[in-house]
């Protein structure tokens, strides 16, 4: 596509989106339009971005014989360093931690057992991830498709994880979402029991990361 081609159509679409109040999506659309217009130009923000606790979130779903339960925390922090490569593409290095002590399921007794016997948060107060993000595809008007690869540490065990993610690119902020499955047994964690509840080994992990330019 030549630079400037279809610009009026993109402008009209951005105006319609802004009219409906979605300024963040309008900004994302403008970013992707720039990507389509010039592959060689720096169109995504680069540098160091801080992961914002409170706006970011880590969620864990565990199935059990009664349907399952979800634990979550918004105490996610760390850094994302975005680079532009010589070929004009982008990737990022990510270092993130989750404050395991703040994970809650909404039931105090279960939370206490989880922190004491399962996560052992007194000895291991954080979960950690260190890895990279690579763009997979750019689709006009949609979040960027990416692949996340890295090493997740829970308690004293580390395992490789690899999962797809969706990234909304704004002027000075990235919002990324993804999900993957791990097994408690991979981290040396015995499958927990709580009263009449018996959990299953797989854990569905969902993450939302909001990272703002430092």
Approximate strand percentage: over 45%
Structural class: alpha+beta
Q: Any idea what the radius of gyration is? A: 20 Å
The strands making up the biggest β-sheet line up spatially as 1-4-5-6-7-8-9-11
CATH topology-level fold name of the largest domain: Lipocalin
Largest sheet: 8 strands, antiparallel, barrel
> Would you state the CATH class of the largest domain?
Mainly Beta
Query: What's the overall average pLDDT, rounded?
Result: 84
Number of helices: 3
What is the straight-line distance between the termini?
34 Å
The CATH homologous superfamily of the largest domain is termed Lipid/polyisoprenoid-binding, YceI-like
Description of the molecule:
It is a single chain. The chain has helices spanning 7-19, 23-37, 108-118, and strands at residues 47-51, 57-64, 69-73, 76-84, 90-99, 126-137, 144-154, 157-169, 173-183, 193-194, 197-213. With 214 residues, it is of the alpha+beta class. It folds into 2 domains: 1-42, no CATH class; 44-213, Beta Barrel (Lipocalin), CATH 2.40.128. Mean pLDDT is 84; it is low at 1-20 and 32-41.
């Amino acid at each position: 596509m030549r630079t400037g081609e279809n610009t009026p159509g993109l402008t009209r679409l951005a105006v319609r989106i802004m009219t409906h109040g979605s300024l963040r999506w309008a900004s994302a659309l403008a970013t992707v339009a720039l990507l389509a217009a010039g592959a060689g130009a720096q169109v995504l923000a680069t540098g160091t971005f801080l992961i914002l606790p409170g706006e970011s979130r880590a969620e864990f779903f565990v199935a059990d014989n009664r349907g399952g339960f979800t634990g979550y925390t918004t105490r996610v922090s760390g850094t994302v360093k975005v680079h532009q490569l010589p070929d004009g593409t982008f990737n990022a290095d990510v270092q993130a931690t989750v404050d395991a002590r703040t994970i809650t399921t909404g039931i105090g007794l279960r939370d206490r057992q989880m922190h004491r016997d399962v996560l052992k948060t007194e000895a291991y107060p954080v979960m950690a991830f260190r890895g990279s993000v690579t763009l997979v595809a750019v689709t006009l008007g949609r979040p960027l498709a990416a692949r996340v690869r890295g090493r997740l540490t829970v308690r004293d065990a580390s395992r490789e994880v690899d999962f797809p993610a969706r990234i909304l690119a704004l002027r000075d902020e990235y919002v990324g979402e993804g999900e993957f499955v791990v097994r408690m047994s991979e981290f040396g964690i015995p499958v927990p029991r709580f009263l009449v509840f018996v959990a299953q080994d797989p854990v569905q992990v969902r993450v939302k990361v909001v990272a703002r330019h430092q």
